[in-house]
Design goal:
This protein is α+β, with helices and mostly antiparallel strands. 35% of the residues lie in helices and 21% in strands. It folds into three domains: 145 residues, Alpha-Beta Complex (Transposase Inhibitor Protein From Tn5, Chain A, domain 1); 105 residues, Transposase Inhibitor Protein From Tn5, Chain A, domain 1; 89 residues, Transferase Inhibitor Protein From Tn5, Chain A, domain2, CATH 1.10.740.10. The chain has twelve helices and ten strands.
């Protein structure tokens, strides 16, 4: 093994095992650049949870708790990404949580306070976002189905803060009906063809869908432990159904609830478009696993070290998403949205050394933009740099970032 590589591995190991480096410190650092990046924008604050699985044996559980079904052990990562509502550009991480489960919970779920449930993460992360995204013009917190519960609808919305979620529960309404009963009584009012991006279980395709929308008033659940919640919450719904999917394809069926006003068909389609942006967080999770960092291959032996590793990797994966999005130069976001001032200075020096003599061998993007930084990082990751060649993907960007961090550490030593 080369001495420089070994030295960098030892530096990282000492960082991971240092008790003064806490998971909370690392997570707080996630949003260092995000606070500035969101200023004046309508931000989609997209949150979700992913299971990070690590191999264990009957004799060595690595201090990890169970995740998923069966004897699978690992760490849970809940993250929130800030995305520009108009352009779809990732602006960084806004908050989250990393943990592993302890002993099995004995008290039934319905009898526990929200603070004693894992579902509290949806609210606490939204509260983190209100601080981090304070400079945004408007915030729309977006959840998938797990984030659909009454306390979230009652507590998260605030001035300039909206909530949008796919429905999991058939909520009781104040008029005695349930949500799904009320939705079925509303006729479809529009049709459209929407683009569905590539996912792990299918390729990209178009879907012919119908849409209906309306308003409902949710009633506070009778068995809720939180008695301070309001008696009712008024929301708007949008249902999108693919009546005739292609053979072998799972049909699209989304029932969405939101605090946004929905008074027209165009309003309803806008909500659908914002919800579609949720897929960016799936790309983020894949970037940490098989399509990038391959974090689940880690050999660290204790839960706390694995939790720290996941927290550190989350920040790196978010930067990868930003650079992959920026690689074609379509959006001229500043490099400072992903890198510190010192790192931008290092990028400038590296850029000079990587460029060739001809125009085709030079960085074609405006200096100090994310696209400019993506060109440098991709070159460090082994990309040719020619526009005619296949654009760099997440793995190339990951490799380039790893090389870049080595160079940054060398730069700091040189300055000392």
């Amino acid at each position: 093994m080369a001495r420089g590589v070994w030295h960098d591995q030892m530096r990282f190991w000492r960082f991971i095992v240092n008790e003064r480096v806490t998971v909370e410190n690392v997570i707080e650092g996630w949003s260092e650049q995000t606070r500035e990046a969101v200023c004046g924008r309508h931000v989609l604050a997209i949150q979700d949870t992913s299971e990070i699985k690590f191999s264990t044996t009957p004799d060595d559980g690595r201090e990890l708790g169970k995740i998923g079904k069966g004897n699978i052990f690992g760490v849970l990562l809940h993250a929130m990404m800030a995305v520009d509502a108009e352009t779809g550009s990732c602006l960084g991480l806004a908050g989250g949580k990393v943990w592993t489960r302890k002993d099995d919970v004995k008290v039934p779920h319905a009898q526990r306070n929200l603070s004693d449930k894992e579902s509290e993460r949806w609210l606490t992360t939204a509260e983190q976002a209100k601080q981090v995204l304070a400079g945004a013009r408007m915030i729309t917190v977006i959840n998938d189905r797990e984030g659909d519960f009454y306390a979230h609808w009652a507590r998260t919305p605030a001035d300039r803060v909206h909530l949008l979620s796919r429905v999991m529960h058939d909520h009781a309404l104040v008029d005695g009906r349930t949500l799904r009963q009320a939705v079925k009584r509303v006729p479809f009012s529009a049709k459209a063809v929407i683009d569905l991006p590539r996912r792990m279980d299918r390729g990209p395709r178009k879907a012919h869908v119908e849409l209906r929308f309306g308003s409902v008033v949710l009633r506070r659940p009778k068995n809720t432990v939180e008695k301070d919640l309001p008696a009712s919450v008024r929301l708007n719904f949008i249902e999108v159904i693919e009546q005739h999917p292609p053979k072998g394809a799972e049909p699209i069926h989304w029932l969405l609830l939101t605090t946004h006003a929905v008074t027209s068909v165009s309003d309803a389609w806008q909500i659908v478009a914002w919800y579609k942006q949720r897929w960016i967080i799936e790309q983020f999770f894949r970037s940490m696993k098989s399509q990038g960092l391959q974090i689940e291959d880690s050999q660290l032996q204790t839960a706390i070290r694995l939790i720290k590793l996941v927290a550190i990797a989350a920040k790196a994966a978010a930067v990868v998403i930003q650079l992959v999005q920026a690689r074609n130069g379509a959006d001229s976001l500043p490099a400072g949205f992903a890198f510190s001032a010192e790192e931008v200075e290092v990028l400038e020096t590296i850029n000079k050394n990587l460029q060739g003599k001809t125009e085709l061998q030079k960085n074609p993007h405006r200096k100090h933009t994310l696209a400019w930084a993506a060109w440098v990082i991709a070159k460090l990751g082994g990309w040719s740099g020619y526009a005619s060649h296949r654009p760099p993907g997440p793995i190339t960007i990951h490799n380039g970032l790893a090389q870049f961090q080595v160079l940054v550490r060398g730069w700091r030593l040189q300055q000392v």
